[in-house]
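Exam revision sheet. Question 4 asks you to relate a sequence to its structure. Input first:
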Amino acid sequence: MTFWGVADLLYLCIYAGQNLVHGKIPIYSDILDAVRTSQAFGNNFPLVLTILGEIFYLTMLISGVLLISGSRWGRYLSYAQILPRLFFVIPSLFPLIYVFKWVGIFWVTELILVLGEILKAYSIARKSKELETGISSRLDAETSS
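Answer key, structure tokens:
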């Protein structure tokens, strides 16, 4: 679970770094751009989507910390993030996405996005089961002695 937590936090660091390199303030600049776009088109949809995306970034920060700490809440939050990740195209295996974007193979990028989320959910569930099995077998050993 630590791997996925680190991946979430690394993604956020890259997001913030890319904004700073381009002279933008992370989150604030995104919202400001969305306000301008909404005003230009007379529709609040871009602003609403941007705010939802920024809230999702906040959940990534929380899940990253919780996964690294081994909290079960990190698992639950990771499961809840699967659909928003697919909607906002925020992959858990983001370094591979950059490789395929450079090559220009879009369908592989989407495939990696979906398979990465399946792999993440499976590996977190498997690790959770191992932890629960380990705890219950230790409790059984303690009660039988």
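Marking note for examiners. The chain has one domain: 2-144.
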